[in-house]
Amino acid sequence: MSIIIEDLNHVYMPNTPFESLALKDINWDIQDGEFWGLIGHTGSGKSTLIQHLNGLLKPSSGRIIIDGVDIHGKGVKMKNIRQKVGLVFQYPEHQLFEETVERDVAFGPRNMGLSEKEVTNRVKEALESVGMRYSQIKDKSPFELSGGQMRRVAIAGVLAMKPSVLILDEPTAGLDPRGRDEILDEIVQLRKQRKITVILVSHSMEDIAKLVDKLAVMHQGQMVRTGTPKEIFRDYKGLTQIGLGIPQITELMLKLRERGKNVPADILTVEEAKAELLNHIRRKGNA
After folding, report:
1. Which residues pair with 5 in a beta bridge?
2. What b/e string do you get for 159-185 counting C-beta neighbours within 10 Å, with b at 16 or more?
3. Contact by Cβ (8 Å): 6, 63
4. Residues 6+ apart with CB under 8 A from 59
5. Torsion, Cα of 6, 42, 244, 180 (10° steps)
6. What secondary structure does DSSP assign to the chain, as a single string?
7. What is the Cα–Cα distance from 76 to 149, expressed in whole angstroms?
8. In this structure, are strands 35-40 and 197-201 parallel, antiparallel, or unpaired?
9. Phi, psi at residue 128, to the nearest 5°?
């Protein structure tokens, strides 16, 4: 499913003393099956932008086109758009409310008017997609679970709607390292299994560098850069100027270059760095 954003602007509280321009002239082309990262300093407009993608916010001007349809066009049912574009907010477990895990995950599909058999199938599939066994977890209260488990249940509630696009706003916020890694691994597997489009909003440059195919950078309500992670992080000085960092391993390689080591500057992961450093050692040994 493709998403095209054209000249998007959003103004909070227009025509009041508190008027604030949150988004300015956003243009973004997201093709079916792509894995995008969205980064930017706090207040840069990331959350405002993603809430436009399933109609939670309406543009002050500009258009959002999903599969060739202007989502704010005449006759378009927003309910259908939200079934296609799933949005997982930061700390989604705060939105859990049912007595059991099964009922919570089933809430969305049941409201779609599906048969109970189909609802149950979707709940099972969604829970298993996030690494939880339906038979073991279905009758438990979501509020008895650990933080990481609650996060998975909340994500399963969105997946049970079978969206074609999955947007995650800081999905690992507040989790311990193990819980963080498990959530990220499950997102990667989900994309492979369902071949869905994924947009990941994150402050972790390491996670972004490791996972996404393309990257968009927000600053003061504008989308200032798009490209591959290597292209974006290569401009480390530009990122620093707008309050963003680069992956720690990239920073290490840059410092090695400053000390005269012949290593690439666009290394993004520990695995890449290990391979390059071994090559560097071999080259020196053969010199």
Report:
1. 28, 64
2. bbbbbbbbbbbbbbeebeeebbebbbe
3. yes
4. 8, 9, 10, 23, 52, 72
5. -100
6. --EEEEEEEEEESTTSTT-EEEEEEEEEEE-TT-EEEEEE-TTSSHHHHHTTTTTSS--SEEEEEETTEETTSTT--HHHHHHHEEEE-SSGGGG--SSSHHHHHHHHHHHTT--HHHHHHHHHHHHHHTT--HHHHTTS-GGGS-HHHHHHHHHHHHHTT--SEEEEESTTTT--HHHHHHHHHHHHHHHHHH--EEEEE-S-HHHHHHH-SEEEEEETTEEEEEE-HHHHHH-HHHHHHTT----HHHHHHHHHHHTT----S---SHHHHHHHHHHHHHHHHH-
7. 36
8. parallel
9. -65, -30
List pLDDT tens digits, range 25-68: 999 999 999 999 999 999 999 999 999 999 999 999 999 999 99
Average pLDDT of the chain is 92
Angle between helices 116-129 and 177-194 (to 10 degrees): 130
Q: Give yes or no for a contact between 253 and 276, defined as CB atoms under 8 angstroms apart.
A: yes
For tokens 């071949």, what's the residue? 195
pLDDT tens digit string along 220-260?
Answer: 999 999 999 999 998 888 999 999 999 999 999 888 888 88
Residue 69's Cβ-side half-sphere holds a number of Cα atoms within 13 Å equal to: 16
- Cβ pair 244, 41 in contact under 8 A: yes
> How far apart are alpha carbons 245 and 235 in whole angstroms?
10
Residues in the chain: 287
> Which amino acid is it at 37?
G
